[in-house]
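Bumping my old thread because nobody answered last time. Still need a sequence for this structure:
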């Protein structure tokens, strides 16, 4: 009866308090239990309870006792749980070698038992260890196996967790579309389940993606949603992770006081819980904030020196912890941060040393973001040192990959030449030896017959030698000719590559100039609450551009398609952008007047009033003037229409059927169209690049009507979703065809 009561108590205890066990009550139960499986279960729960209190020594002590007793009793399921708990404890303690050992043992036992849930959890935990070690490929492989088993079990909560983990790996690898796809699957499942912890993880991860895309407004929205859920859960450790992320957003917004406050809140929680990985992240982020403070315009020179010193102090604290817990990605991040601070201090040699250490690790674990950051910093260091050739070398990852490929090819050629040389040398030695043997036989023979045979043999050998010698001379001559040709080809190849690099560098520099004149994200967000810009140049630079001007009465916005694409189109786009600015600075706000004036200036600047001019250059465009207060729109177009969608209704406003630069001054008469807007209306401005794209099964254009149907179907969706669908349909239609023209589509919601 006593044993029955004890068993009933244990079952009730584990069923009601597995997530918040009290070590004292468990210790009381331990005193009265026999050396059986019940004792193993109590010892396991004791280990978990102390782990939740961050008392890792006691957690390990009782978990190891449970493991030994489970082995003694041949209690397989208990042993699997012991190993799983020890693995989790060592992950929290950042001891990844031991964590891998015990999670692998847990997997082995669950496989023997055929426990699918345990198998899925073990693969997931092994994936966590690999990710913390910076081994993203192995982490992804284990997460996928875990997901496959969980899908078979239909465990939705666990499935959502797997998708979050898989998304994290794609994010680490720099594949943001796949990362977002996985996070959104997890978010949908967690919303169905009402799982606050899962939802908070999904919002936090999506926020990280937005941060990497430099969309800080969206990133902050997702972080705050995640923080709200974690505050409701009362999980301080998870709250610390969000404080850490929010701090970075404040840094990007220039609010260093709030950024530092968020990071200090995160650090406090992590110090109290002895979360070493989290502590290293906090110290690293605090160091970065001090560096930004030192760089800010408001900081005096003497104060900047102090801030850089504080930055280095925190980065070295982070590095020490990351070395202790053996996280490759963390160490590389610290080396990169320290090198960057030394660069700011103009300590170029020290900066170079730390950045090289970072680069070695980033390339080893194939962490794309880190590699790109380090190459940029190295390029700046070498530029300051005056080593411009090396600066360019580090600036382009492409060059490094190409050089490594060439080196591998050279090694292969050298190995092949060595083999040929050894073969020829051995052949000559064999021929010489055969000749000497034949000569000795001839001298030893006394008979006339043997002498004749010798003579015949000698003549034969001589002929063979002559043939070999002649072949050898021919081969040497052919090799000489081939080497001469190869040298000439190699020289031409190097010259062509050099010229291509110079041309590409120039065009890429022109791209930076072109991008610099376009409206910034901040300017767009100031004028439009919801919008998207789908911008896809055919070549590096583009003949399409968009233009924005805000006046007291209205917001002027245009999408412009200049004659040509690539470099000629880019020249036209820069001219068009500057002419539009000049025109509106003279205060006309009527779209029709602006187009009329733009036509005159294009004719004048390109001297196209001259009847002898054979080529005509100009542009097609859509220009709107939006009075946001009155919700009134004025539109004028040159060869381009404007589309407005209101629920399922489409309004097509047609522009003049002529291009800017093609109409004589006295004949230009562009017309204004007026439209009363309503909240929720969707406005689309676009060039003809999308509809003119060749592709599909018959290699034809997309054409206007299918494009309008696509806009109709997506007009009610969120902005980034619309942009994604437009891109997917464009790429699917284009398939293996080359891009026909520059593509620009802008959507604005009222």
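Sorry it took so long. Here it is:
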């Amino acid at each position: 009866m006593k044993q029955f009561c004890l068993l009933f108590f244990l079952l009730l205890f584990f069923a009601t308090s597995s997530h918040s066990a009290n070590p004292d009550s468990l210790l009381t139960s331990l005193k009265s239990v026999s050396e059986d499986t019940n004792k193993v279960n109590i010892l396991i729960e004791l280990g978990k309870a102390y782990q939740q209190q961050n008392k890792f020594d006691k957690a390990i002590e009782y978990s190891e006792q449970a493991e030994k007793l489970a082995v003694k009793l041949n209690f397989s399921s208990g042993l699997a749980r012991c190993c799983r708990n020890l693995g989790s404890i060592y992950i929290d303690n950042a001891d990844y070698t031991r964590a891998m050992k015990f999670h692998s043992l847990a997997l082995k036992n669950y496989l023997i038992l055929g426990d699918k849930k345990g198998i899925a959890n073990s693969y997931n935990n092994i994936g966590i260890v690999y990710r913390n070690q910076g081994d993203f490929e192995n982490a992804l492989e284990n997460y996928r196996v875990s997901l496959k088993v969980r899908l078979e079990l239909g465990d939705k909560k666990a499935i959502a967790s797997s998708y979050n983990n898989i998304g994290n790996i794609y994010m680490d690898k720099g594949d943001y579309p796949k990362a977002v796809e996985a996070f959104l699957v997890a978010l949908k499942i967690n919303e169905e389940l009402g799982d606050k912890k899962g939802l908070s993880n999904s919002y936090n991860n999506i926020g990280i993606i937005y941060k990497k895309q430099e969309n800080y407004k969206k990133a902050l929205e997702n972080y705050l949603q995640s923080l709200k859920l974690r505050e409701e859960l009362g999980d301080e450790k998870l709250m610390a992770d969000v404080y850490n992320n929010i701090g970075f957003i404040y840094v990007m917004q220039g609010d260093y006081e709030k950024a530092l406050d968020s990071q200090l809140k995160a650090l406090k929680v992590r110090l109290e819980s002895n979360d070493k990985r989290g502590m290293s992240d906090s110290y690293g982020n605090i160091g970065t904030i001090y560096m930004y403070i030192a760089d800010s315009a408001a900081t005096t020179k003497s104060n900047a020196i102090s801030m850089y010193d504080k930055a280095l102090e925190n980065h070295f604290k982070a590095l020490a912890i990351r070395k202790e817990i053996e996280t490759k990605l963390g160490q590389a991040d610290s080396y990169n941060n320290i090198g960057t601070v030394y660069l700011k201090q103009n300590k170029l040699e020290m900066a170079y040393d730390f950045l090289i250490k970072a680069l070695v690790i980033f390339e080893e674990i194939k962490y794309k973001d880190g590699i790109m950051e380090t190459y940029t910093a190295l390029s700046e260091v070498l530029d300051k040192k005056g080593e411009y050739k090396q600066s360019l070398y580090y600036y382009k990852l492409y060059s490094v990959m190409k050089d490594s490929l060439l080196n591998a090819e050279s090694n292969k050629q050298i190995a092949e030449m060595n083999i040929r040389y050894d073969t020829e040398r051995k052949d000559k030695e064999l021929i010489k030896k055969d000749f000497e043997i034949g000569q000795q036989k001839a001298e030893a023979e006394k008979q006339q017959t043997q002498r004749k045979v010798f003579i015949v043999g000698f003549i034969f050998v001589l002929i063979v030698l002559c043939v070999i010698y002649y072949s050898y001379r021919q081969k040497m001559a052919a090799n000489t000719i081939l080497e001469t040709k190869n040298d000439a080809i190699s020289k031409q190849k190097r010259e062509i590559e050099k010229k291509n690099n110079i041309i590409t560098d120039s065009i890429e520099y022109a791209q930076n100039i072109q991008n610099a004149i376009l409206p910034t994200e901040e300017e767009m967000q100031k004028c439009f609450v919801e919008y998207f810009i789908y911008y896809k140049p055919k070549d590096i630079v583009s003949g399409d551009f968009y233009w924005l001007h805000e006046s007291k009465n209205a917001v002027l916005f245009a999408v412009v398609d200049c004659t040509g694409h690539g470099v000629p189109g880019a020249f036209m786009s820069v001219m068009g952008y500057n002419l539009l600015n000049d025109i509106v600075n003279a205060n006309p706000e009527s779209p029709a007047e602006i187009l009329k004036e733009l036509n005159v200036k294009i004719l004048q600047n390109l001297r196209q009033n001259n009847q002898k001019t054979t080529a005509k250059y100009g542009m097609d465009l859509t220009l709107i003037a939006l009075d946001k207060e009155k919700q009134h729109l004025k539109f004028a177009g040159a060869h381009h229409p404007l589309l407005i969608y209101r629920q399922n209704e489409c309004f097509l406003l047609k522009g003049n059927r002529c291009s800017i630069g093609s109409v004589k001054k006295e004949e230009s008469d562009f017309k204004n169209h007026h439209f009363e807007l309503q909240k929720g209306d969707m406005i689309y401005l676009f060039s003809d690049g999308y509809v003119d794209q060749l592709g599909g099964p018959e290699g034809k254009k997309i054409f206007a009507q299918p494009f309008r149907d696509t806009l109709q179907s997506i007009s009610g969706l969120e902005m980034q979703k619309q942009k994604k669908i437009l891109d997917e349909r464009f790429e699917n239609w284009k398939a293996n065809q080359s891009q026909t023209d520059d593509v620009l589509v802008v959507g604005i919601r009222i």
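The CA atoms of residues 698 and 733 lie 10 Å apart. Let me know if any region looks off to you.
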